[in-house]
């Protein structure tokens, strides 16, 4: 490591000019960071304030909490099947995001490393199919799953498995593209040498490629998780029984009627909904931070 | 410690590798045949294929029971195909593509094609089923009580939840003492041993397999009770209050000879019109119940020529592009700028910044859209209070558009920040270090090295983000609902996207018109696809760097 201007020794001898240099090199980065954090946080503070405000209405909520009680949270669990919604969402988003990144990693590997007939067409088709306004297919999806429910109730309406299958339909697409982009930036010599050393394609994929793309798996996993948690339109048609709903469907029902009065409960639910995503991000943080270059390309 | 991507260091790790690769154009086939079958691989293969077989057998039984032979054939072919694919040593790309593609076809392509096919029909309210369904519906809805028709004692029951389950009429004939169960599918005689009939009222008080609704539950669903018509051979059974039902005669009847509906009382006839899928009288009157027919390109020409639809199309299209480009572009610029600012080896606390920055993305977006809408409230909204403004945000066209874009920026930039950070980390620092050794300014090296490499990874994502935002229903419906609306046109608002505008036209107050709605969505799809295809072909050139 070279000696930087902002090491303690350098800073002790600092003149105004080197403070200026410090700002030019590092300080402005902190300024940008602080401003961005402020922009990110103020609506969330508003929600926290509303969740803690015992009055629980929209018109009484301000940015700084005017009171503190957990009344909104207890009401949420007592008056609504919030715990059910929470578990449903967690299970569905967890399983669906894991499965979907696996499926798209498989496809991205094939698209990035193999040359086969229909590769370009396949890539383009993937991009195009994703562009059809999906919620307008909801009538067709409804009709299809009416039949499925009659034949296999276990994967029909009001089951998490039916919705899971439906979400798998969109597993390829943007995530595959994102992953393929990262696969493409990995040097081909890595897997080619492994192949020459006698590794099968499965070994190359699981032992060499997957660890290398861990950061992008983490990012797309997070995206898929958030996408499933937030998915509303299909889940709203699919899940009609109170206990089978996901957070998005259940909580929308909470404020569909009288939003002003339930605003405190809604805000409390919003905060609780955010917890799993924040935790997932924390869990994946080190993979995201340890970039590709810090990983196996060098080692 | 570190080596460049294809420098001498990596060559040392595998001596002789490069000459082999260059001298002998290695096909994947030769390498594949050399790879041995490992024990783990074999076990995994057996377990997974066993699972496939198990699921196929589980899925086959209901298909056999329902005599769904086509479905069974597809299931058998798919399973056989999977077994062939994973037992052979050929078709390696397919091994990786088929799992996702199967789901894609079943739950994405098929519904989309199914939907697109309705664009050529008049599918919608009043045109849902076949012609026979329409005839039955017309006949049963014209049922009237006539002297001498049978009177039944009625109990309202369901097989499911009393509040939501499908309703069934349990009927007992006071004269013959026969008991029946009837629903929209028809009348079915019940075994007298399965039911308990009250001797007092003659009503059925219990029946095996049915939950009988009490008066409170039944009156709560009185609209559904009134609407339920049980077709019978001579007419239909309708309820008369909650405890009695009558079998009436259909006033309107279908006549095969003239292919028309005749009204027995007035003598008026409505002749079937195969082109429009409805029964039309000589004076032009149409019966509400029609059937689904193929209307060819009529929906397409209607979108282009109907002034109600094509009129505001252009203005909405321009805003739609502005919204999609603005949402994608602004979030990308802000996200990338912050990612670049924090991407420095000398930055302390980047983890903390990152945790706080992505919080908007961790918040449930549907809920935050509703929260933002309240923050833009003119009277007690946070935005006006915080900055001392008195702006009627959703009242003016431009302020509403700015507000929507601001919400999109807040919701979307953490995502762009995340992917830009990820992409930046994938770019070897040696590349930018090399340019600085060569005397390039940071801006020059960013423009010449970092940005092109970033765009290789991110441009497909930007295209996808554009396509997503082009049809971002939630962003509009949860905030402005398309408004504000001009005084003279309550159907097309300033922030309406094509998709929300279409949605209102097609599913709005006039009743569902799925055929028309899917037609417009095909137009939208075509626009997005063309834009995407153009940007895609441009990014292809960049992609060739790595192909």
Oligomeric state: heterodimer
The percentage of residues in β strands of chain B lies in: 5-15%
Unreliable runs of chain A, pLDDT <50, ≥5 residues?
A: 1-7, 290-299
Instruction: Tell me the number of helical segments of chain A per DSSP (H or I, 4 or more residues long).
Output: 14
CATH topology of the largest domain in chain A: MetI-like fold
- Major sheet attributes of chain A: none
Q: Name the largest protein-protein interface in this structure.
A: A-B, 123 and 130 residues
**Structural class, judged by helices and strands of chain B?**
alpha+beta
Could you tell me the radius of gyration of chain B in angstroms?
Answer: 33 Å
Count of discrete domains of chain A: 2
Radius of gyration of chain A: 25 Å
Strand content of chain A: under 5%
Domain ABC transmembrane type-1 (chain A): 86-284
Family (chain A): Belongs to the binding-protein-dependent transport system permease family. MalFG subfamily.
GO biological process, one term (chain A): maltodextrin transmembrane transport
GO molecular function (chain A): ABC-type maltose transporter activity
List the helices and strands and how they pair.
The complex is a heterodimer of chains A (299) and B (547).
Chain A: H1 8-12, H2 16-52, H3 71-79, H4 82-113, H5 119-129, H6 138-151, H7 160-168, H8 174-185, H9 188-196, H10 201-212, H11 214-230, H12 233-238, H13 247-256, H14 259-289
Chain B: H1 8-13, H2 17-23, H3 28-34, H4 39-65, H5 69-87, H6 92-117, H7 131-141, E1 143-144, E2 151-158, E3 167-172, E4 179-183, E5 186-189, E6 195-197, E7 204-207, E8 211-212, H8 215-220, H9 222-227, E9 230-231, E10 235-240, E11 244-250, E12 252-255, E13 260-263, E14 269-273, E15 278-281, H10 298-305, H11 307-310, H12 313-342, H13 350-357, H14 359-362, H15 365-375, H16 382-387, H17 397-426, H18 429-437, H19 442-470, H20 473-477, H21 498-507, H22 514-543
Antiparallel strand pairs in B: 1-11, 2-3, 2-8, 2-11, 3-4, 4-5, 6-7, 9-10, 10-11, 12-13, 13-14, 14-15
